Amino acid sequence: MSFDPGNKILIITAPSGAGKTSITRYLLEHIPHLAFSVSAATRKARGNERNGQDYYFMDVEDFQQKIREQAFVEWEMVYEGKYYGTLKSELDRIWNNKQVPVLDIDVKGAIHVQQQYPNSTLSVFIEPPSVDELKRRLESRGTETAESLAARVNKASYEISFKHHFHRIIVNAELGKARQEAMTIVRDFLEI
Q: What is the Cα–Cα distance from 122 to 43, expressed in whole angstroms?
C-alpha cells in the first residue's frame, strides 16, 4: 500500500541551540515519507549553503512582495531586517511528491502554521535541559559575539515560555534519546 501524506505537516520548533536541526536531519534521514520544507530568508548564504536547498535566499524587496501576494503560510521578521518564511508553494511541492513537509521553524511561525492547519499538523517543541546549557551550547559554536549571545539567550527564554502551545515537548538533554523519542512520536503521527 502506498503512503498517503494527507496534507499532513510536521513542525519542529525550538530556541536556537536546542538541537532542532540535528533532530530534524535525523528524522529526514530515517523516514523517507518526510521532506524538508526549504524556508525563504533575506539573509546572505553562509559557507556552502545553497539557494533552493538550504534556503530560498531573496532580497527584502522580493520577500515583501511575496508577503503582499500572500505567498507565505507564515513569515516573521526574526531579527531586525531579517525575514524568514514558509512559502505555500513549498508545501504544495512536497505534498505533490506524496510526502509530508517538515518545517524547521521558529516558535512564532510554528504557532501560525498550527493555527492555519489545526487538524493536520504535529508540532514538536525541542527544549534544552536548561537555559544555562543552551548558553553553553551556543558559546561552543564560536559564532556569537557577547551581544548576540545575550540576545539569543533572552529570546530562547521567551520562546521556552510558549512550549505548551505545541503537541509534544522533547527535552534534549541527550541527543540520542531525544532523536529516538522524536522518531516514535513522528511514526505514530504518520501511522507507519
A: 28
- CA–CA separation, 66 and 5 (whole Å): 27
Handedness of CA 163, 27, 90, 47 (dihedral sign): positive
Least confident range of 29-38, 80-89, 93-102: 80-89
User: Could you read off the pLDDT of 45-78 as tens digits, one per residue?
Assistant: 988 999 999 999 999 999 999 999 999 999 998 7
Q: In the numeric block, which cell numbers belong to residue 39? A: 524556508
What residue ranges define each of the domains in the chain, with the CATH number in brackets? Answer: 9-190 (3.40.50.300)
Q: Between 3 and 130, whose confidence is greater? A: 130
Give the tens place of pLDDT for each residue, 85-103.
Answer: 999 999 999 999 999 999 9
Is 174:22 a contact under the CB 8 Å cutoff?
no
